[in-house]
Structure formats: C-alpha cells, structure tokens
C-alpha cells in the first residue's frame, strides 16, 4: 500500500481535510488511513526517529519530521493551483504549496510518535527478547538500523532504569496497584529489578 502511495501521480493526489480539532477526517476513511500509514513510515527512518532514544520529548528531530511531512508528503498534495481560487475550507492541508497546514502539526507528530513507540516494541520483541546476549542480538539485528544505534538500543532496553520505567508504565496503564495484595506484589517486583546486577 505504501508503494502505491509513494508512486501516485501528481494529478491523482488527494485533499485531506481537518476537523475542528485539527485531525484528518476526509475525504474518506481509506485516504486518512493511507496518510497515517505514510506518516508511520517516518517513524522507521533511523535518522529521523532513533530507536535508542528513551523518550519522544528528547528526540531533537521533530522539526525535521514536521518539515519533511509538510514538504515531502507529495502523494497527498491536495489541490492544483487553479482550484485554490474556489472557497475551500481553511483547514485544507495545502497552504502556499505546503502539504500540511500548521494546524495539523500536533496530529502529525502524535501519529509519528505512536508509530515510533509501536516500532520500538516490535524491534524489542523480534530482535531483543529472542536472544540471550548482545552478540546474538547484533548478529540478528534489523539491517535497516545502524549497528551503533542498535547497540545503544540493546544497552537501553537491558538497563535497570529502563526496566523500572517499563514496570511503572504498566502500573499506570493498568492501574494494577489498587488492592493491598497487588501493591505488595508490585513492590516485590520493583525490588527484584532494583537488585539486578
């Protein structure tokens, strides 16, 4: 599907409209899904979204991603210049030859962040957990991720701090510490991790 999106000809590009919350709503669900998938590909570009970064807020490439999305989402270049004369809603993505208006920035970056988080989880499941040591993990690393970046990812995922944060996130998301027995179990798990070598 992504190849189809990237190879679309200029005259077949589609206008994407935003709702009052600056989220894409049309022209239809399929086009919005394709656009989201296109943004998801940005999350898998190692020079834009490093997998060895622990926190989205620490990524220094968000403005690069935003610029890339504005200028290079060519498959979604919405309307030809001659059509701009008509009264289209102000929330069309094309504004002065840019693909996405500034109102869509938050949604675009949130979509890339969500994809980045999912991608890191997949990398961890497929290329970290199945192997017992760093040597095996490096031998079986994904070829599209630079070796040095993957090494730092391995170190990050194996660190005590990362494991503590991971458990903390699970606790927050599932609210599993509401009963005293579960609080004790959670405290024991935290102590086990803190005592790791």
What do you see in this structure?
Strands 1-2 form a two-stranded antiparallel ribbon. The protein has helices at 2-6, 29-42, 62-72, 105-127, 134-139, 147-158, 160-174, 180-194; strands at 17-18, 24-26. Helix content is 51%, strand content 3%. The model is unreliable at 74-98 (pLDDT under 50). The protein folds into two domains: 2-119, no CATH class; 159-197. The radius of gyration is 21 Å and the shape is globular.
What's the layout of helices and strands?
Layout: H1 2-6, E1 17-18, E2 24-26, H2 29-42, H3 62-72, H4 105-127, H5 134-139, H6 147-158, H7 160-174, H8 180-194
Antiparallel strand pairs: 1-2
Rounded average pLDDT: 74
Question: Could you say which structural class the secondary elements and strand pairing correspond to?
Answer: mainly alpha
Question: What is the CA-based Rg, rounded?
Answer: 21 Å
The quaternary structure here is single chain
**Proportion of residues in extended strands:** under 5%
The total count of strands amounts to: 2
Tally of contiguous helical segments: 8
Low-confidence sequence ranges: 74-98
Shape annotation: globular
How do the helices and strands follow one another from N- to C-terminus? Answer: HEEHHHHHHH
Number of domains: 2
Major sheet = 2 strands, antiparallel
Distance from first to last alpha carbon: 46 Å
Enumerate the strands of the largest sheet in spatial order, edge to edge or round the barrel: 1-2
Helix content: 40-55%
